[in-house]
TrEMBL record:
PANTHER family membership: HTH-TYPE TRANSCRIPTIONAL REGULATOR, HTH-TYPE TRANSCRIPTIONAL REGULATOR GLTR
MF (Gene Ontology): DNA-binding transcription factor activity; transcription cis-regulatory region binding
Sequence ranges assigned to domain HTH lysR-type in this UniProt record: 17-74
Protein family according to the UniProt entry: Belongs to the LysR transcriptional regulatory family.
Record bears the keyword Transcription regulation: yes
UniProtKB keywords: DNA-binding, Transcription, Transcription regulation
Alphabetical list of InterPro entries matching this protein: LysR_HTH_N (IPR000847), LysR_subst-bd (IPR005119), WH-like_DNA-bd_sf (IPR036388), WH_DNA-bd_sf (IPR036390)
UniProt name for this protein: Unannotated protein
Gene3D superfamilies xref list: Periplasmic binding protein-like II (3.40.190.10), Winged helix-like DNA-binding domain superfamily/Winged helix DNA-binding domain (1.10.10.10)
């Protein structure tokens, strides 16, 4: 009569073990006596023994054998012990990761900034944060305020440093700094009466900075004849050098020094904007705080 081969189940049942039971097993393997193992885990010897007895019951295999007065791990449980060590080590790693996450030490921060903020004002804050938190995945997008605001509202960014928006619904907005907007005259001409200013090369219509500039020029009695537009301050400054027209730029991007007697026509306020309804992100919270401290 032919003998049938014994078929093992394709999927073995999951053994219901606890991390604590596995930690008990690892501790016993690492120490000479049960009392030393229990002390290393800050539990009583009785609690350790009960936990190991329950582990043995759930596995369904004897874990120990008596040698004289001592209980020794059986050679056959080497696989169980190796598994226990992996699980306990991974669990400790997870605990360290969770602790770091709670304090902003890991995770991802998606930041948007206008060019002036990223290049001239907040580069030290970004460098310092990345040095302090090397495990954080820090991503920076540099773009005009309008684009960053759209990305922020879509949830593509965690926070953004932008020119203060008119509509702040759904946002938490905190002041960061104020910039002076100064005139850059054509070929370094003397800046006389506002009626002699222009024509202009300015930021594009629809931008918050363009709105501030036009309002300030009109208030001073200057004609706003715009012959070219660009989002790029370097391009506007070069157009002025090439003789295309006058421009108005943030002082930090104007090529002028604070002692050069510049003409300030307006101020713009840079703010830190974050969605009011946002997920918990300790790393983003920590970086945001560093910008306003």
């Amino acid at each position: 009569m032919a003998h049938r081969e014994r078929q093992l189940p394709s999927e073995a049942p999951i053994v219901n073990l606890t991390i604590q039971q596995l930690a008990y097993l690892v501790a016993v393997a690492d120490h000479e006596t049960f009392s030393e193992a229990a002390a290393s885990l800050s539990v009583t010897t009785s609690a350790l023994s009960q936990g190991l007895a329950e582990l043995e019951r759930r596995i369904g295999l004897p874990l120990f054998e008596r040698q004289g007065r001592r209980q020794m791990l059986r050679d056959e449980v080497a696989e169980v012990l190796a598994y226990a060590k992996r699980v306990v080590a991974d669990t400790r790693d997870l605990g360290r990761w969770v602790a770091a996450a709670k304090h902003g030490g890991v995770g991802r921060v998606r930041v948007g900034m206008i060019d002036a903020a990223a290049v001239h004002h907040l580069h030290d804050a970004m460098t310092s944060f990345r040095d302090r938190q090397p495990e954080v995945d820090f991503r920076l997008v540099v773009a005009p305020s309008g684009e960053l605001l759209e990305q922020l509202r879509r949830g593509d960014l965690d926070l953004a440093v932008i020119v203060d928006p008119v509509a702040t619904d759904g946002l938490d907005v905190v002041p960061v700094l104020t910039e002076e907007l100064v005139i850059v005259a054509l070929n370094n001409q003397t800046i006389g009466s506002p009626k002699t200013w222009g024509p202009w090369v300015l930021f594009p219509r629809g931008s918050r900075t363009r709105e501030l500039i036009e309002r300030a020029l009109v208030a001073r009695g200057a004609a706003v004849d715009v012959v070219a537009e660009s989002h790029q301050p370097d391009v506007l400054r070069e157009m002025t050098r090439l003789g295309m027209g006058w421009t108005v730029l943030p002082l930090a991007q104007s090529g002028q020094s604070e002692q050069s007697g510049q003409v300030v026509v307006a101020e713009r306020h840079l703010v830190l904007a974050r969605p009011s309804a946002r997920s918990v992100n300790p790393a983003a919270d920590q970086f945001a705080q560093s910008l306003i401290d």
